[in-house]
Amino acid sequence: MSLTKTQRRTFYNSMAWRKKRDAIMRRDHFECQRCKAMGKVALDEYELNKNNRKKIKLVVHHKKELADYPELSLDDENLETLCVECHNEIHGRNFSANPKIKNPKWDDEKW
Predict the structure, then answer these.
(1) Which residues are CB-contacts of 92 (< 8 A; sequence separation ≥ 6)?
(2) Using CA atoms, how far apart are residues 19 and 110, in angstroms rounded to an integer?
(3) What are 81-103's pLDDT values in tens digits?
(4) Element (H, E) at 79
């Protein structure tokens, strides 16, 4: 059974998810597990955005998608702490302010 967007939103707003998310972050010592595996450090920091809200640095990721595997939604083995950058990379999201130009029109190096 696949969950709808509304069902997923309801789940992510639930107290059960909030408690589980906090427990997983504590288990993972508030570190991105993917960065840690590559020898880097990505920790949660208390930094405010322009609206004076805490910037999200770390998220708890479902290894098997919530929409496709709702029965694993609170399974510790299916959850890991990731930094936002790694999470976006896993999901194929690119929010770069300066996307790389593949074929630049001018190349001053060739003369």
Answers:
(1) none
(2) 58
(3) 999 999 999 988 876 555 554 44
(4) strand 79-83
Query: Which tokens is 47 given?
Result: 């930094």
Measured CA to CA, the distance from residue 62 to residue 14 in angstroms comes to 16
Sequence letter at residue 34: R
What are the residues whose beta carbons fall under 8 Å from the beta carbon of 62, sequence distance 6 or more? Answer: 69, 72, 73, 78, 79
The angle at the Cα of 65, spanning 61 to 70, to the nearest 5 degrees, equals 110
Q: Return d(Cα 96, Cα 68) in angstroms, integer.
A: 28
Q: What angle is formed at CA 51 by the lines to CA 49 and CA 57, rounded to 5 degrees?
A: 30
Q: Of all helices (H) and strands (E), which one includes residue 25?
A: helix 15-27
Cβ of 42: how many Cβ atoms within 10 Å? 21
